[in-house]
Design a protein that fits this description.
Elements (H helix, E strand, L loop, with lengths): L38 E11 L7 E2 L6 E8 L4 E3 L4 E8 L5 E8 L5 E2 L3 E3 L3 E10 L3
Length: about 130
């Protein structure tokens, strides 16, 4: 999106392919991102443990916005070092939860997102680095 959201704007999400029975969605509005080529890097992982971890991504510039989303099936959630909770946990009708996290990189380099769950469960995590204009 290259235009700032306005009051009354609508975001439409369409799922194709496999059925998504209990989705959880979040949308955030940030200023200062360039009009194009704003996603610098992205990574994701899935697992079954008490320790969701995205794996490493490498940023091209300093001061990038790092946003992570964790989908999980545990009753407790603690973000990894350096990350603040944006929102969540959001829970859907099946008892699954989603929490979003953010951090700002200090220098170009390698970054990862992680969390700790209270009980071992299935999870999916994604991490995206957004370049500032």
């Amino acid at each position: 999106v290259t235009t700032a959201l306005q009051t009354g704007d609508t975001i439409t999400v369409t799922f194709t392919g496999a059925t998504v029975g209990y989705p959880i969605l979040s949308a955030y509005d940030y200023g200062g991102l360039p009009a194009s080529s704003w996603v610098d890097a992205a990574i994701g992982a899935v697992g079954n443990s008490t320790a969701p971890a995205s794996g490493n991504l490498t940023t091209a510039a300093a001061s990038e916005l790092l946003v992570a989303s964790v989908y999980y099936f545990s009753s407790t959630f603690t973000p990894g070092a350096g990350y603040a909770i944006l929102d969540g946990p959001k829970t859907n009708g099946a008892g699954n939860s989603q929490t979003s996290l953010s951090e700002t990189s200090g220098t170009a380099g390698t970054y990862a997102a992680a969390a700790t769950l209270g009980t071992s469960s299935r999870w999916a995590i994604s991490l995206v680095a957004y370049a500032y204009a």
